[in-house]
Amino acid sequence: MADFLLVHGSCHGAWCWRDLIPELVALGHSARAIDMPSHGEDETPIADVTLEGCRDAVLAASTPETVIVGHSWGGYPITAAAEAEPGMMRGLVYLCAYVPISGLSIAEMRRRADRQPLIGSVVKSPDGLSYEIEPSRIRPLFYHDCSDECVDYARAHLCPQAIGPQEKPLFLTERYGRVPRAYIRTTDDRTITPEFQAEMCRDFPGDRRYDMDSSHSPFFSHPRQLAQLLSKIERQF
Question: Coiled-coil annotation: which residues (predicted)?
Fold first, then answer.
């Protein structure tokens, strides 16, 4: 059985794993979720959020036996953690997540995508330090196949996303390459296109690339199926 550490994406928090954690526990695993700096219960001021701080939050919660799951933007801090301390995790799972290209920030990665679903949906704060998603676009982008209850729950918890760490390039070496990796592509994703997800994981081993017929939020739309898939993946690490 595995120890799973769940790392959320932009504007989310540990709260988004609400339905997945009990499914993983029912399969005999342990599962924990953390808030990135300035998200959820973490009180870091947005102006002080850095990619390094997000990386360190992941490392502080991990052990050499931990399987780390990163969703969406969470692909960046989990990769940064693997680069810094490859011995502090058993493996990485990218859940419809960005797989960094060395030397690029996530903002630069987004611009490489074949399509840009977020155009017109991102609202920057007056001080330029953070952004939120335009309210009418929240469900179509993130939760189109989720229940009304899940959407209402998410709306009540979404928060501003610091821009600073998403404009910081991440440089990778063979240290990151030592860590086993797997990718779960969501084929009905309207935030990160399925085509771009496939491009980002094309160098992953073929038996560690998986598809789910889901929106960008399978932790809400298909928590049991996602837990079963994660359980299968951890046995490959």
Answer: none
Range(s) of the domain holding residue 197: 3-234
**What pLDDT sits at residue 64?**
98
The token pair that represents 163 in the structure block = 């821009």
Number of structural domains in the chain: 1
**What's the angle, vertex CA 170, arms to CA 164 and CA 173, rounded to 5?**
165
Cα 122 to chain centroid, rounded: 18
Can you tell me the distance from the alpha carbon of 78 to that of 89, in angstroms, rounded to the nearest whole number? 10
Q: What is the pTM of this model?
A: 0.97
Q: Largest alpha-carbon pair distance within the chain?
A: 47
In sequence order, what DSSP letters do the residues of 60-97 get, joined into one string? HH--TTEEEEEEGGGHHHHHHHHHH-GGG-SEEEEES-
d(CA 24, CA 226): 9
What whole-number distance in Å separates Cα of residue 139 and Cα of residue 141?
A: 5
- Bridge partners of residue 94, in order along the sequence: 70, 183
Torsion angles phi and psi, residue 130, rounded to 5: -150, 175
Tokens, residue 129 = 């330090």
The CATH number of the domain holding residue 162 is 3.40.50.1820
